[in-house]
Backbone:
């Protein structure tokens, strides 16, 4: 029998390594997908519309927002981001686990609307966080300074999450994330449906 998927929220300050960890996590698990958000920012080099984000203009974004099409939305660094409510619900109902890569503001809204498992990824130090932002070579020094200033505010919300993972050693951080996903999949409500035939034969 098909089980209801689990919604995982993963947040981190910019440069925390969230996207790299999520990509590696997707390689380890079947029936696990990542939500594709709508955004008003321009695509970065290598990003593909419909795969990394749905890139839309502000007029289109506002139309979706007014229709109540977003599970959550927020303005981050002068750009809007939103998660399609219908898309997430369809994936969960199909038995897929869904990862939302969103900030603490979006996470707070989602938690008020549906059950989820939330994870916050911390950098090992501010110095390493700065080095990672500079190493991406995607932002100007002014934008990097802005992201560093915002990082402290984002990290201040770590206690609102179910789990905290430190991304110092990538492989260890990935093991921690994998353990969270595996533990959720063997919780009794999920196993009750997944193992119905076995349970019936044992009882």
Residues:
């Amino acid at each position: 029998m098909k089980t209801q998927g689990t919604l995982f929220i993963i947040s981190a300050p910019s440069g925390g390594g969230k996207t790299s960890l999520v990509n590696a996590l997707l390689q380890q698990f079947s029936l696990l997908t990542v939500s594709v958000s709508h955004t008003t920012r321009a695509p970065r080099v290598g990003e593909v519309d419909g795969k990394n984000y749905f890139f839309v203009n502000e007029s289109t974004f506002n139309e979706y927002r007014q229709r109540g099409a977003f599970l959550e939305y927020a303005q981050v660094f002068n750009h809007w981001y939103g998660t399609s409510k219908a898309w997430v619900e369809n994936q969960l109902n199909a038995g897929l686990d869904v990862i939302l890569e969103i900030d603490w503001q979006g996470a707070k809204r989602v938690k008020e609307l549906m059950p989820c498992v939330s994870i916050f990824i911390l950098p090992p130090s501010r110095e390493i966080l700065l080095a990672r932002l500079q190493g991406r070579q995607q932002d100007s020094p002014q934008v990097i300074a802005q992201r560093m200033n915002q990082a402290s505010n984002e990290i201040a919300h770590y206690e609102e999450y179910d789990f905290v993972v430190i991304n110092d050693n990538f492989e260890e951080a990935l093991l921690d994330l994998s353990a969270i996903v595996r533990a959720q999949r063997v919780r009794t409500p999920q196993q009750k449906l997944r193992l119905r035939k076995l349970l019936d034969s044992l009882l």
